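Replying to the earlier thread about multi-chain prediction with a worked example.

Input:
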Amino acid sequence: MVKAEKKKINLRVNGEVHTLLVAPHLTLLEVLREELHLTGAKESCGRGACGTCTVLLDGEPVRSCLLLAAEAEGRQVTTIEGLGRQGALHPIQEAFVAHHAVQCGFCTPGMVLTAKALLDKTPDPTDEEIRLALSGNICRCTGYAKIVEAVKAASDKGK
Amino acid sequence: MEELSIIGKSAGRVDTAAKATGEALYTADLSLPRMLVGKVLRSPFAHARIRAIDTSRAERLPGVKAVVTSADSTGEKWGVFRYTQDQAFLPPDKVRFIGEEVAAVAAIDEDTALEALTLIKVDYEELPALFTMEEAMRPGAVLIHDSNPGNINVHVKIDVGSVEKGFSVSYHVREDTFTAPEESYFQAEPYAVAASFDSTGNLEIWMPNAGPHLKAKPLSNCLRMPLNKVRVRKITIGGAFGGRSEISPADVICALLSRKAGLPVRIVYTREENTVATRLAHSMTATIKTGVDREGRVLARDITCHMDGGAYSSTGPIATSVPFLCMEQAYRMENVRYNGYRVFTNKPIRGMFRTHGRAFACGVDLQLDMIGLELGIDPVTMRLRNARQAGDYTPTRSLVPSCAMTETIERAASAARWKEKWGKLPPFHGIGIGCNSVQTGFPMGIRGGSSAFIKFNEDGGATVISGVVDNGQGNENMLVQIAAEELGILPEDIQLINADTEVTPSDPGSYSMCETFVGGNAVRLAAIDAKKKIFKFAARALEANPDDLTARGRKIFVKGEPERSIPFARAIRMALAKGEPVSGEGSYWPKVDSRREWVENPSGQLSETFSFGTTIAEVKIDPETGLVDVLETWASQDVGFALNPKVIEGQFEGGLTMGGQGGMLTEYHLWDGGRLLNPDQAEYRLPLAPDMPKINSIIVESHDPAGPYGAKEAGMSIAMSAAQAYVSAVCNAIGVPIKEYPLTPDKIIAAIEKKSKKA
Amino acid sequence: MRLPSFQYLSPGTVKEALETIAAHKGKVLIVAGGTDIVNRLRQRLVSAPYVMSLKAISELKGIKKNKGELVISAGTTLREVAASPEVSGLFPALSQSASCTAAPPIRNMATIGGNLLQDTRCLFYNQSELFRKAAPACLKQGGRVCAAVKGATRCLSVYQGDLAPALIACNAKAVLKKAGSSRTVQVADIFSNKGKRPLAVEEDELLTRIVIPIPSGPYSCAYEKLRLRKGLDYPFASAAAFLSLSAKGVIDRARVVLGACGPAPVLVEDAAAFLVGRKPGDADGLSAARCALKVCRVVENVALPASYRKKMAVVMAGRAIGEALGQLSGAGA
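Result:
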């Protein structure tokens, strides 16, 4: 086993800069969860095939389980914790709650972030555009119907 | 029924905001001081004797705090029933599937734990392994369990009426065989366990579960600790779907590691471990022979079913029975014989899955289509003529107290415009129907009931204490809605303490679809109990008879005279002032036949009530590629009463996606002997957002006499009827029955080609 | 699951990168988007003491239309390729192939270079260590047996990249640099057609850019992909078609390339005979597509049967050809 030296990296997460000493083989997902205790991003497949690890990198959704933490240096990382908290939900989070788009909740942070990236670019998406944008996020509970409703409701047209 | 103000409304759930913000903690998110990382060493052999395990090098690795093997366990064997106790976690003698747990380590970080695993040396003696049911049942095949000749784990035999007589007077008889490989749960949250002992030997343990009390008892057995020292804690859970009800080796292993290390330990499964080392669904071959009269009414049915159970019993007797029981509930059949065999193989263990036996269910229903075609009767009429009715007894003698099966068929067919479409659609365009029924609870002996407590604060708020667990389906919200409605206060006035075995009373758990019926009823009864006591005091203040009072919106008032009221909180304080503080207590035990046993005596009241449902699907097939485009679907279920319509729609939509879209089009497991080739989402294909059609949810209410506000179950029936509807629709579209599932495009192309060759 | 441990290097220029991979020849893995290599690292299919990132190298980004050619730097993401008006305007097949690769978040990370140079895949090979250890080492792992096909002596793991068939159909070239030298090859020649070692790229070479010649006369191209779901999946069958017209309005060049049917994308050579020399309206697309059967070497190593995939190669080829013909007819040729 290669014993690599820990590297100093600066990560900008939700507007705050963190200086961390991490082993180079750690992914962004692992650093977020284990070093920064931001557990909203999750591992459900370890293959980049499910979307529960989704975070925004400079506003675009990426698979944090496939991204080495060091690769995120110099970029803006947004996790679900950067969007809202209890009592002060982001409009997309509010829409998810109001439209029953959350059941077990494990896929929800990834869905919300991916939806945010979509609405930031396309304020009035069609149902098809919403489904395609979310095509990389797997939900086992909802069948996606109310997730799509929620995103529609949170879009410009929905308001 | 009095007009309801909270029940029956699609109020937002109490648990979803925390999930949307990422604040909700699942087991893998838990952090305890000085917590260690646990990892499990798994067998690379499907069947092998363990000659020796040498953990010395692993123990010496810096950073390793504990290593456990069978030597550290009590040797207790697990099985849901006393007569199926065949699984020793960390087996001492032999391994029976690739991936079985052999040893485990706890270390200061994941890298150290992974390295430690490589330092454990296991001396295996490979044994012949059996990978298919045919191999396993062959005379002379090696025995996977010495106690089971022919590697038959369970044989459920049901014989009602006279099947031979029924066939002899049938107008038409046909026999078909249907098969399907395994599918599996793919809950979004991979399994994880966190365990911690305190200085007096109390165990706190967290894991995704479908019933904490069902975990606590086996843990107490396996660890030889009294129940009051085993605390299965409340945690947010990312889905169960039937696969998280039993004690898991990881639970015991994590506790052993924690006890040995003297520190908290957390084990987080990879997706692969979740697929292989928890449960899969059964693969199955079902041969169904059905005889009908001229009108298509079933006179006799004879079914033989073989299910591959994998290496251990798990919920064997139940899993072997439920596919049959669902169909005997859904359709009338006086003369019926069922021989269900669960067979051991050297493969990962199979459990109960939300779509219980897709080959069986789709087979029974597709056969009705096929018979109908031969008799000139359309599929909807076939279902109507055979549909279960309220007041019937099922063949195994369960009374059906409420049933709106017929209404679900008629309303789904009407909404789908069946009459305009069936038989009139263009080529490769089809419509199909599926009907099913699901138990609301099983007989579970002393663990079959639920109890609840309610305590009050002097400002009128309440805490409800219940053993009910929420896997994501909305059970917590259901309890809060019921308590708020019954007490006459608001949901935000209620705190819920649930699913914690130190504090909450016993509850049967969610996997038998009874949380609403049993758990909800217990809370309702507890609220009624409290209300009675509260009204005693309120009556004095209002100078009225307690029977004339009602409560709503935090006020207690005389029925019909809302101005004659006092605030709810005042009645609470009056009671306190009198030294008689109010609390509520309620218990609900379903009225089932306690003598009914899955194998020994499969007769008598199985559940107190049943749900019934129908799904219709309309599809279009690309005849060049065999790919299926699902155009639209209609899901209709008799849920008794809709406590929260939007929550129920969510269950219909999720169930249809799992049972129909995934279950019948894209989900199947592939094997290389005992090696699972597609354990993760890269090669096990779950439905995606753009795959899904419009889903029309049609809630039907039969107002069950015993359910809380008339409610039954709403989480499983649609998964099953959707599977059936998808098969019915695809076969209608191509004009050929397909009996091997799922309906992947290669099978559809092959069926189309076979048909055109015949023509 | 943790990745295996390694040292991380992040050169700032192509020159530095080339010096690095020369210095650690054979001991360094390159990470571009990470969507292929990180998966294989996690499964311990590969490991190396060094991982070299391309993220800091700005020379590897960008799409530029020069005279007579479109140049796409190897570090351009698939999202950028799919969204580029130059790419969609000049080579719709390439846009189509980039837009249907995986899912949007993966396309935000994955690069055209990484996608092109992805490893071949097989159900029996792409497994975690536990499951690979449960069977004898297969040919691709350096062992002696093929787990997918009993008795096979050659590895037929599948190349499932979406961009390669489109690039090859469009006659694209790849520029490979190494410290002190550079070579330009046809994209088709990057592939060895051997499942065990599918890429004819040396350990100290870096793919820096793709160059696609822009034909002077009318031309069209299309890409068709077959997958079971409407997202995420690798192709079970795919085909790209390229057609160009002479001044007389007759097809003078036709290239049909299959993907997902063997260790390399395959040019369906015989297809040209049914297309070249004819006006688009008279072309025999069906017969051209059927030629796919001869060159499609599929075995049972992915989740759908080989016999089905072979039939679908013909269907996808037919659709790609049909679309390309349609584009030409539409252009009033």
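Chain B has 19 helices and 30 strands.

Feel free to reuse this layout for your own posts.
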